[in-house]
Amino acid sequence: MNVSGDTPGIDYVAYFTKQFPVDLANMAALRDELAIRQGALSAAEAAVADRAAAVKELDAAKTAAADILAEAKDVAAKTKEAAAAVKSRETAVDTAEVALANKVKAVEADLAVRLKACESLEAGQAKVTAELTERSEKLSVDADDLKNRVQAFQDKVAALSA
Predict the structure, then answer these.
(1) N or C: which end of the chain has fewer CB within 10 A?
(2) Whole-number Å distance between alpha carbons of 18 and 14
(3) With a threshold of 0.85, does the pTM exceed it?
(4) Could you give the angle at the alpha carbon of 117 between the alpha carbons of 112 and 121, nearest 5°?
(5) Is the dihedral of CA 115, 116, 120, 126 positive or negative?
């Protein structure tokens, strides 16, 4: 509002015919730019929210990964202990197997010695049995001969006494 009157008045017809369409076009362009900026601001806010959700998910994933890693380390430690126990048992079994094989060899050697001794005793026993059989036959022959001689002597004594 011009109170002093030193500026000329506004020519509304000229304004509405010449300047208003330009101002209206500028305001429409500003409105479109504001909408774009508002969309960009909304997109930025959504991106910030997505980033915050991603950080939460990343923290959850890191926690889960740490839990899985701890569990894997525990399983690995138990596996190493089990492998060491199996290795120890395997060594003990191998040692026992060697000891058993040596014992079997010693028993087989002792058995072979005993078998030879038995064979030797059997051969000696067969020899003694054959000798005893021979002596028994000779004894039978000698007993028969003695019996015959005693009978002959008795017959002689009876002939002399008669």
Answers:
(1) N
(2) 6
(3) no
(4) 145
(5) positive
